[in-house]
């Protein structure tokens, strides 16, 4: 017998209608937040950034590919990684299919990582993705947009991520991150990316938005950490499943790669 509360269909409908009002309020609030995002002041970007892409060397304006808007997913794939971050990979699985639809709304989308282009290309092929992916290796782009950090920043508490300064990084006795999740999901992800925890978390996930007008690029918006939840298509479905995200036993990301069946792809 289930331990969850049960009831009649009539009782369920009454509870569902009450929940519907809360959902409608959330939708209205979400619409208002979208409006506020679009009203943020734009910041002109005069610094020149260079990227390596499938088509060759590119500037930031080149990444717009003829559109007036650009969305960048800051994919965790540092120069020392041997594979992309599993969590970022799950997010990428979601947006891989709708990039073409964004383009039809005058929005270009690209992932950007600090790993060399050949690593990105190999992993992209392995995962079966088709979205644009640019390497910012050797440049300041990731650092300037607060998704990559130096070992010195990490050691001395100089990391500012998600609009907050973090304390100096340290490990728990069991190898997990201090003051973070139970278990070792970060260590597991680091291992899947082929690196150690300290190196792994010097890269962070995020997204940034840009506009291009009269040849000038403007920075308009960024989101990090749980600010990406709404962009993670898988979570939107899981939040409507009977058991929700169901992560009490740790994270679980399916990796459709050469390593085998779904049962082998547990991150914790």
Q: Quick gist of this model?
A:
The chain is an alpha+beta fold and 268 residues long.
**SSE run:** HEEEEHHEHEHHEEHHEEH
Q: Averaged pLDDT, please? A: 88
**Rough outline:** globular
Q: How many extended strands?
A: 10
Distance from N terminus to C terminus (CA atoms, Å) equals 28 Å
If helices are DSSP runs of H or I spanning 4 or more residues, what is the number of helices?
A: 9
Radius of gyration: 20 Å
Provide the helix percentage.
25-40%
Percent of residues in beta strands: 15-25%
Structural class: alpha+beta
Q: Which regions have little confidence, pLDDT < 50, spanning 5+ residues?
A: 172-181, 258-268
Provide the spatial order of strands within the biggest beta sheet.
1-10-9-4-5-6
Biggest sheet features: 6 strands, mixed
């Amino acid at each position: 017998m289930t331990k969850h509360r049960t009831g009649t269909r009539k009782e369920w409908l009454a509870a569902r209608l009450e929940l519907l009002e809360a959902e409608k309020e959330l939708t209205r609030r979400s619409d208002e937040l979208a409006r506020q995002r679009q009203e943020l002041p734009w910041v002109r970007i005069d610094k020149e950034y260079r990227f390596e892409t499938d088509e060759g060397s590119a500037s930031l304006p080149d990444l717009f590919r003829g559109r007036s808007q650009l969305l960048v997913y800051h994919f965790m794939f540092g120069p020392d990684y041997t594979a992309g971050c599993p969590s970022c990979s799950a997010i990428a699985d979601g947006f891989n299919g709708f990039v073409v639809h964004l383009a039809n709304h005058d929005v270009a989308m690209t992932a950007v990582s600090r790993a060399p282009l050949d690593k990105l290309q190999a992993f992209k092929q392995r995962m079966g993705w088709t979205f644009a992916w640019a390497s910012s290796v050797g440049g300041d782009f990731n650092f300037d947009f607060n998704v990559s950090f130096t070992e010195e920043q990490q050691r001395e508490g100089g990391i500012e991520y998600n609009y907050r300064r973090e304390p100096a990084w340290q490990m728990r006795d069991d190898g997990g991150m201090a003051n973070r999740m139970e278990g070792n999901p970060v260590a597991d992800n680091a291992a899947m990316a082929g690196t150690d925890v300290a190196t792994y978390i010097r890269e962070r996930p995020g997204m940034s938005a840009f506009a291009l007008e009269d040849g000038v690029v403007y920075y308009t918006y960024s989101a990090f950490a749980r600010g990406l939840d709404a962009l993670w298509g898988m979570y939107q479905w899981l939040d409507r499943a009977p058991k929700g995200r169901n992560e009490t036993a740790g994270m679980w990301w399916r990796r459709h790669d050469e390593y085998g069946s779904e049962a082998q792809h547990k991150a914790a």
